[in-house]
Amino acid sequence: MGAALGPPPRAHQIKLACLGRDRPGRAGPLRVLCCLSVDDALALGRPEKPGLPSSPVLEPRHIARLSAASALYLSDPEGTCTDVRAGRWASRADHLLAQLQSPEALTLGLTRLLQRIQSQAVGWSPSEGACVDLPQLLEEAARAGAPGSPGPVLAALLDHARSGSCFRALPTPQYFVDFVFREHSGETPNITLAELAALMQRLGVGGVSEPHGDHSEQGHLGKEASQPGPVPPASPNSSSSVWDTMCLSAGDVMAVYGLSEQAGVTPEAWAQLSPALLQQQLSGACSPQPMHPTQDQLSQSERYLYGSLATLLICLCSIFGLLLLACASCSAATHYVIQTFLGMAVGALTGDALLHLTPKVLGLHTHDGEVDLLPTWRLLAVLGGLYAFFLFESLFNLLLPADPEDPKDRPCSHGHSHSGHSHGVSMQLAPSDLRPPKQHEGSRADLVAEESPELLNPEPRRLRPELRLLPYVITLGDAVHNFADGLAVGAAFLSSWKTGLATSLAVFCHEVPHELGDFAALLHAGLSVRRAMLLNLASGLTAFIGLYVALAAGVGEDGETWILAVATGLFLYVALCDMLPAMLNVRDRRPWLLFLLHNAGLLGGWTVLLLLSLYEDNITL
Fold this sequence. Notes:
By secondary structure, the chain is an all-alpha fold. The chain has 3 domains: about 1-170, no CATH class; about 175-205 and about 215-285, no CATH class; about 300-365 and about 375-620, no CATH class. Helices cover about 60% and strands about 0% of the residues. The chain has 24 helices and 2 strands. It has helices spanning about 1-5, 40, 65-75, 75-85, 90-100, 105-120, 135-145, 150-160, 175-185, 195-205, 215-225, 240-245, 250-255, 265-285, 300-325, 330-360, 375-400, 420-425, 430-435, 465-495, 495-525, 530-555, 555-585, 590-615, and strands at about 130-135, 165-170. Helix 21 (about 495-525) crosses helix 23. The chain is elongated, with a radius of gyration of 35 Å. It starts with a helix and ends in a 6-residue tail after the last helix. It is found in: Apical cell membrane; Recycling endosome membrane.
């Protein structure tokens, strides 16, 4: 340990290239390659920022990186040689140190690392006992004044490797026997009848003991039996605590006793495995640990509360927008507000789908350790490509000569395609189309007279069959759409309140113009304002059904991921196939103002979701 943590190692002190080759007689010489040079080792001390002066020696602050790099070399010589040639050795060492920061990750990571180092050893069998194990490394690091720190532990490992020691990744077979006797034997070295009965009760085996009149013994047994459960861990640096809480796989148990996985367990070997199985059961190492919610996760009641509030606000804001439109005259301001909401809806939907939901679905977004922002920037580049082509098409339409047949004689005029998507058409209706003339019956008037001059006749008209069916089709489609939105919001709040906030914002931004469009389509089908409002409200209630289905199902992390994946597709479809065409096909007397409003809404939606994606870990509730 002193050699690893002492003065800065000079070039002549570094013997990583052929470590173990000059000690063929020692236990466990390592099969290593001679691919490292002194310059490769000294390169670990170079500054991370280019342009700063480099030192010809490794300073004490580089010991942790040197130790991690050496451990990587000992565990995988060929792979490390490839990293050295590619210039990735230092970054791999830093990544290993970052992975071993937490106590749980340190124990598990070092165990796997020692297993890989042990696999490089020649002429060593697991039955040998004079090898360095994980508890010894942790104890030496604690004596050096840095308990639980990965740098000193790896430095101790390097010091033992330099001296030619072998390593043991798993406990010895005797450990399991010692564990059982340590926890269940009293003053005598053997386990008494009462202690055996208590042990069997904890294991859930054996019958009820008959009383023999010894009340003191019975009381002692009752006391032992009243304390089932996992053995409490000992002090952090004791030899027993490291393996007491480690869940071993079947392969690990067979490796402890030197059994071949191909040959299997013989009846004779089964007696040897029994102490290990007993220890795993008694320690509770493999018992499912209680899930502690992270800082941004919500309790069940909070999920219902916040999910219900978010869904209610979305529905109320949509209804409030409908009331404004129903009471408004044909004003350009109302029309421009709708168009701005359209742009914001496209930005919020695509931003939430790509910047927030896609990293969650693909497992790219974690809340522990360093946050890798590279996937976020790459997904932002996808939005950049989308925006570039949107600008190209919008400017192309603006700069081309205007079509003389385009209706531009009204301040709220919109041209719409006969073959367009039904929602796209409805979202391009002007506010004047939403308010029936006073001389028309509210339930019979066609509110879009642009293509049908005969509809200006104040006499009631007979609705075409397709118009009579249209309200039910719109209401059914809207109900399914809102149910899917409720599922998405519910799954988002199951994941975390931050994901729920982002998804609710995206749903709100696209629901407002979407509901306005459906409302206009219902009025176009001849319904009264009151009846259209009721149908819109009824379809909006299905969002609560979807929300409560997602929350009550408790689908778990895997199910949440699948629901969020479907929600991602839904958001992209609504934004790119429904709302973006409505933005591109709209016509207005002030095209440049409309162009600026669309861009403001689009960029505003993307900016909000980008900031939420970048800084959500810094937001506290």
